[in-house]
Hints:
The protein contains four helices and three strands. By secondary structure, it is α+β, with helices and mostly antiparallel strands. The chain has a single domain (5-75), classed as YlxR-like (Hypothetical Cytosolic Protein, Chain: A), CATH 3.30.1230. The longest helix is centred in the C-terminal third of the chain and has 11 residues, at 58-68.
Amino acid sequence: MVNSKRELIRLVRRPDGVVIDPTGKLSGRGAYLHSRRSCWERGLKGPLAHALKTNLTDQDQERLRAYLGTLAEDTPEDEAEMASDGQVL
């Protein structure tokens, strides 16, 4: 299943660091993540930095982990959907 951009959270590489773009309109190199904790946890291990072609600074990591903390825990339904999409947990 492919999610529309409206269902995903956009992150943008800016001169002042990586920020969350709730409007989807900020200029800069962007990447998208699901609003699932597991996607953010995986993304912060390296794929997000690779997609944004940058290194995440300590401040970026802190900011993004703070946002991750606001996300609900993955449900069994989320895990089943990710497994059916071929995403590895």
